[in-house]
Specification:
The protein has 556 residues and is of the alpha+beta class. The strands form 7 sheets. Strands 8-15-14-9 form a 4-stranded antiparallel β-sheet. Helix 10 links the parallel strand 11 and strand 12.
Length: 556
């Protein structure tokens, strides 16, 4: 007897695809809804409990999503977006999720009407190109040398963060730090490496106002022999080493046969002479401070203190690199290769200070340092962590502007202009793509709408008024003042955004929406855990979207 053949009708197949799309769209919207309330200056904070039982209080989109533990694959890919945004431009982590969620939300209607996802994606990509063209048109270039403008810009970009209540403090710190470590690459390009050369040291205690940018480096170390070595040296000559100043232990078990008892003395003497020769090679260059990443024996310590040289041992490699950048020294791997040019003379003062109950070594007042340390003070660890996150964002914003000194209006004005222009253009789009194109235009309004919601004003009235002002793509600078919810000229209020951040937000959001729309099946490769005693399934099972739908999107 012939086995019955199952014919999948086209409509059935389409149904299953639509179901998957719905599941993905719902998951993405759920993620967007979690952090929707953290957009804008009057936004809510979220309190997160992490795995180790600690708490994080923040309104940084990326920090919140990082802590979430989500099972749904589509939601996971949404969370990746905000991480990408954070690494790429450092700001706009919330906007990108809200925008992507909205793009998927408006696509839902077309999926229901059985539009093919490729058509929707084509329309979205066309909308993205036009949106970037609008950005180019309304962007204005600024002079990065003008400190007041730069300060206003960084301030308006981190105005949505928790630390905005401390005024210019964070903006000042960020600008100072990024200006110090900026390197000119020629042709008007600047490279600012925040990760490598700016170290943020958080020391609980004191007030936030005591935070400073040090023109040099601060490390959590004391000199080796505090009583014998100087703790304050002006214009020190610094030698940086990447080798141990102690006798090398033999490779695994070394056997030495001692025939006479004098041989023992000879052996010890050889060790001492080896260390002495190392120290002599170093002391030839008359250093005031010797820093090594590895160990430094008591004997070497004795020779140094006798010569009046301060020494610090077991320093982190990254810190050593920063000190090298700050004082102009070169890290040397073997003492016999030392040259005069390797000695760092750029530092103004070396000093060991006690802050709280720990000792910190400062190498500061450097001439033209290319690395710096931001010292943050504050009442509690939680507050300091939040300030550090905000400072990272502020430094990223400053870096973006130094790299590409173009501004676009903030406060939702850019999105409204893009939206109005796309609505106009949608009439000239031919064929079936016209409708998804227009929907994408409407989706851009999610950002100003969310801003209005978070200010607590009447959303419908505000949005209608704004759409009226932006009707034909004019009045590009009319937006919402996030603090009061009033419609204002954002140019006067100095509510700006960096061009890089906006462009990246649009690109990431739309490309991600297209990616999720093109998924039509979720096939699970994970074996479901079998309860003991249950018999194994006879054939491999494909998890249908129905199952994926039932899984909780967000953990209780």
């Amino acid at each position: 007897m012939q086995a019955p053949v199952l014919v999948l009708k086209d409509s059935l197949k389409r149904e299953s695809g639509t179901k998957v799309h719905h599941g993905n769209i719902q998951a993405s919207k759920a993620v967007a809804d979690i952090i929707r309330t953290t957009l804008g200056p009057r936004s809510m904070l979220k309190m997160l409990l992490d795995a180790s039982g600690g708490i994080v209080v923040t309104n940084d989109g990326n920090a919140i999503l990082r802590e979430l533990d989500i099972a749904h694959p589509a939601a996971k890919s949404m969370i990746e977006l905000s991480r990408t945004q954070d690494e790429e431009v450092g700001d706009g982590t919330t906007s990108v999720i809200v925008l992507a969620g909205e793009m998927l939300h408006v696509a839902e209607a077309f999926i229901d009407k059985h539009y093919h996802p490729t058509v929707i994606c084509r329309a979205y990509n066309k909308a993205l190109e036009d949106a970037i063209a609008v950005l180019d048109k309304i962007a204005m270039t600024i002079d990065v040398k003008d400190r007041a403008t730069m300060l206003g810009l960084v301030k308006s970009c981190i105005g949505t963060k928790f630390t905005s209540q401390f005024g210019d403090l964070i903006a000042d710190l960020a600008l100072d730090a990024t200006t110090i470590v900026g390197v000119d690459l020629g042709q008007g390009l600047r490279e600012v490496d925040i990760k490598k050369y700016i170290k943020v040291e958080k020391v609980p205690g004191g007030q936030l106002e005591d935070s400073v940018v040090l023109k040099g480096v601060m490390i959590n170390k004391d000199v080796i022999a505090p009583g014998k070595m100087r703790r304050k040296i002006f214009n020190p000559r610094i030698i940086l080493l990447d080798c141990p100043l102690e006798y090398k232990k033999g490779e695994n078990q070394t056997n030495a046969e001692l025939l006479k008892e004098e041989d023992w003395g000879v052996l010890l003497k050889l060790e001492e002479e080896y260390i002495e020769s190392l120290c002599v090679q170093i002391l030839k260059f008359k250093p005031d401070l010797v820093i090594t990443e590895k160990g430094l024996s008591d004997l070497a310590c004795h020779y140094f203190s006798k010569a009046g040289v301060s020494a610090i041992r077991r320093l982190r490699k990254t810190d050593n690199n920063r000190i090298a950048k700050a004082c102009g020294a070169v890290i040397v791997n073997r003492p016999d290769e030392l040259q005069e040019s390797d000695v760092g003379t750029g530092a103004g003062i070396f000093e060991v200070k006690k802050i709280g109950d720990e000792f910190f070594a400062f190498i500061v007042d450097c001439k033209e340092p290319k690395a710096c340390t931001v010292l943050l003070r504050g009442p509690s660890k939680d507050l300091l962590n939040e300030v550090e996150r905000n400072l990272q964002d502020a430094m990223s914003v400053a870096r973006n502007i130094l790299k590409n000194p173009k501004l676009v209006p903030g406060g939702g004005a850019t999105e409204l202009t893009v939206s109005a222009t796309l609505k106009q253009k949608s009439s000239s789009v031919e064929g079936i793509e016209k409708w998804p194109y227009e929907a994408a235009a409407i989706a851009f309004e999610a950002i100003p709408r969310t801003l209005a919601q978070n200010c607590g004003v009447n959303v419908i009235r505000t949005m209608t008024a704004l759409q009226g002002k932006h009707a034909n793509g004019e009045n590009a600078w009319i937006g919402i003042d996030g603090n009061t919810g009033v419609i204002t000229d954002v140019k006067e209020k100095k509510i700006w955004d960096a061009y890089n951040v906006k462009a990246q937000t649009f690109k990431t959001a739309i490309e991600a929406a297209c990616l999720l729309l093109r998924i039509d099946d979720i096939v699970s490769g994970i074996k479901k855990k079998q309860p003991p005693g249950a018999k194994a399934p006879s054939k491999p099972q494909v998890e249908t979207e129905g199952d994926a739908d039932n899984e909780q999107i967000i953990p209780e």
